[in-house]
Amino acid sequence: MSDINMTPLIDVMLVLLVIFMIAAPLLVSSVQVDLPHAAGTSASSAPQFVELTIDHTGAVYVEDVLQSPEALYQILAKTAKANADAEVRLRADTSVPYGRVVEAMGVAQKAGLSHIGFVADAPPSVAPAKP
């Protein structure tokens, strides 16, 4: 037999394709924001958290769902009532005015959530300069 048996190769390829098709949507957030870069450790895992996102237009999303100011307060108050130690993970685009970020923080604190963490991208790796 001089031909290569392609069946095992195709089986492996199809399994890998299925794995990538399942894993790819989990890696991408649906709201696109340009996060600032900050050195530090990775985000801590809180017992429970709410992800607040402010996009470049200033619109506020909770868990990737657009919210009005009234609905935002109600969701955060409900979360605070369920778990007072819940953390708010705030993702804001770099072009969002600071005042808009402070407004979102104020709503979270008014709702009873005082643990607020800022999400940022890790800075690009740069080789240290030699003296």
Low-confidence stretches: none
Overall SS class = alpha/beta
Give the rounded overall mean pLDDT: 83
What percent strand?
15-25%
Kindly state the number of beta strands: 5
The CATH architecture of the domain at 49-118 can be given as 2-Layer Sandwich
User: Taking Cα atoms only, what radius of gyration do you get, to the nearest Å?
Assistant: 21 Å
Number of helices: 3
For the biggest β-sheet, the strand order reads 3-2-1-4-5
CATH fold name of the domain at 49-118, please? Nucleotidyltransferase, domain 5
Shape: elongated
* Sheet with most strands: 5 strands, mixed
How far the N terminus sits from the C terminus, by CA atoms, comes to 65 Å
Write up this protein.
The protein has a domain at 49-118: Nucleotidyltransferase, domain 5 (2-Layer Sandwich). The chain is built from 3 helices and 5 strands, in the order H-E-E-E-H-E-H-E. Helix 2 crosses helix 3. The protein has 131 residues and is α/β, with parallel strands linked by helices. It has a 5-stranded mixed sheet with strand order 3-2-1-4-5, covered by helices on one side. The mean pLDDT is 83.
How do you describe this structure in short?
By secondary structure, the protein is an alpha/beta fold. The protein contains 3 helices and 5 strands; from the N terminus they run H-E-E-E-H-E-H-E.
Summary keywords:
single chain, 131 residues, alpha/beta, Nucleotidyltransferase, domain 5, five-stranded mixed beta sheet, 5 strands
Q: SSE layout and pairings?
A:
Layout: H1 7-27, E1 49-54, E2 60-62, E3 65-66, H2 69-82, E4 87-92, H3 98-111, E5 115-118
Parallel strand pairs: 1-4, 4-5
Antiparallel strand pairs: 1-2, 2-3
